[in-house]
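Journal club side-thread
Mid-discussion, someone asked how the predicted structure for our own chain would compare to the paper's figures. Pasting it here so we can look after the session.
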Amino acid sequence: MHFTSGNSLAADWPVQIILAVILCIFIGLFEETAFRVLINDAILYKFRNSKHVFVWIAVISSFVFGAVHVLPADYSSVSAVVTAILKIVQVGLFGFCLLIMYWKTRNIWGIALAHALFDGLSVVPEAMFNDTSDIGSADLYVNSGSNGMIGLAGFIAVLTVAAVILWINIGRKIDFDEIRKTW
C-alpha cells in the first residue's frame, strides 16, 4: 500500500469502501472461475488419462494466475524484474492454495470468497485513504526496491508454509481418481 504519514480518510470513504468490497467480490469470482475452474477443467478434460495431469494443472494455472497479476508492471530495472518474479511466485502459491481447496470442495463460491477477502486486505484500506484511480493497477501488486523484495520474500515463505499445511491436511486426502472420472 502507498500510505504516507500525511494520508487522511478520503472524503467519500464509505462509498469507496462499498465499491472496493463489490470490486473484490467480482474480481474474486471472475478470477477463480477463470484460473481455477476453466483452466482446471479444460486441462483435466483434455488430458484426463495422463498420469501427471494434476501436476500440470497446478503448475499451469498457478503460473498463469501469478503472471497475469504483474503483466502491466514496470520492468525497467533489475530490481523491478526480480520483484515481478517474486510476485509471480507469491500469487502463484496463493493460487495453488485455492486450487487445493477447489479440488477438495468443488465449490467456486468458497474460494471466490477467500480470494475476495484476500484482495480486500489491500484494496479496502487503499480505497479509504487514497485516490482510487490506481486500484487494480500493477502498482498495488509490484512494489520494486529492496523493501518490496523483502516483503514478497516473507510473504512467499508464509504462503509456502500454508501450501504445505494445506497439502498435508487436505490435498493428500483428495480422491484424484474420483475427480478424473466424474469431472
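Post-session note: Residues 1-5, 137-142 have pLDDT under 50 and may be disordered.
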